[in-house]
Amino acid sequence: MFAIVRTGGKQYRVAAGDIIAVEKLVGEAGDKVTFDDVLLAGDGDKIADTKGLKVTGEIVAQEKGEKVIIFKKRRRHNYRRKNGHRQQHTVVSITAVGSSKAAKKAAPKKEAAKPAEESKAAAKPAAEKKDAPAKKAPAKKAAAKTEDKPAPAKKAAAKKPAAKKPAAKKPAAKKPAAKKED
């Protein structure tokens, strides 16, 4: 089965066992990566439904790409600039394309969520008791905020004294003219 996945603003055609280099992803070698943005999936000639389909992979390495040289020149102006850049990318090995492995991993998470919901249900009576004092506290904060709002308005209404203008410069003293000799 193959899939077309979008990541880093690019699209990649992947299948289980493929190794691809994508834009830099957060993680270290050995970390698991899941691509949720699957645009198309299929098996041979048949196209499969992409709803809920995920592509999983494992980070192999964090690397830099080949060096790209940027050279700028403006003729007859003695202007030359040379610059280089190496783009960071992540090498990913695709482990599964929409297989049951991803579904099995998702199922335990849902089971873990159920006990959390039960604990929330048990905590609701205690939470209701806490809600009454909690409602009073925000009201005080709201009152404090309303008191703060007029205060800045009063400050804005008060005018600051105008800045003093610098005194006018006095003209420089005139020098007597030099005497001409005959």
Radius of gyration: 35 Å
Task: Enumerate how many helices there are, as a single number.
Answer: 2
Order of helices and strands: EEEEEEEEHH
- Total strands: 8
User: Helix/strand/pairing class, anyone?
Assistant: alpha+beta
Strand order of the largest sheet: 2-1-5-6
Distance between the termini: 111 Å
**Residues in helices, as a percent range:** 25-40%
Strand content: 35-45%
- Summarize the main sheet: 4 strands, antiparallel
Calculate the mean pLDDT score and round it: 77
Uncertain spans: 100-114, 119-135
Shape: elongated
Describe what you observe in this structure.
Among the domains are: 82 residues, no CATH class; 41 residues. The chain is an alpha+beta fold. A four-stranded antiparallel beta sheet has the order 2-1-5-6, with no helix packed on it. It has a four-stranded antiparallel beta sheet with strand order 3-8-7-4, with no helix packed on it. It has two helices and eight strands. The protein is elongated.
What does the secondary structure layout of this molecule look like, with pairings?
Elements: E1 2-7, E2 10-15, E3 19-23, E4 32-35, E5 38-43, E6 46-48, E7 55-74, E8 79-97, H1 100-148, H2 150-157
Antiparallel strand pairs: 1-2, 1-5, 3-8, 4-7, 5-6, 7-8
